[in-house]
Amino acid sequence: MTVSTTQLQQETIPSKVTTQPSEEISINLEFGGGLHLLFDSQPKHKVSLPKRLTQDEDKAGDDKPVNVKYLIRWMKDNLLSERVEMFGDGDGVRPGILVLINDTDWELEGELDYQIQQGDEIVFISTLHGG
Amino acid sequence: MPPRLCSLCGTAKAIIKRPKTGSQVCKDCFFEVFETEVHNTIIENGGIFKRGDKVAIGASGGKDSTVLAHVMSTLNTRYDYGLDLFLLSIDEGITGYRDDSLETVKQNQIEYGLPLKILSYDELYGWTMDKIVSQIGKKNNCTFCGVFRRQALDRGAAQLGVSHIVTGHNADDIAETVLMNTLVTESEDTIKRSKPFKYAYEKEIVMYAYFKKLTYFSTECIYSPDAYRGHARVFLKDLEAIRPSAIIDIIHSGETFQLDESVKSGMKALQNCLRCGYISSNDLCKACALLEGLEQGLDKSAIKTSQEGAAPAPSGQRTIPFYNRAKAEIAI
Question: Which of A106, B29, B40, B132 is the most exposed place for a label (fewest CB within 10 A)?
Answer without folding.
Answer: B40
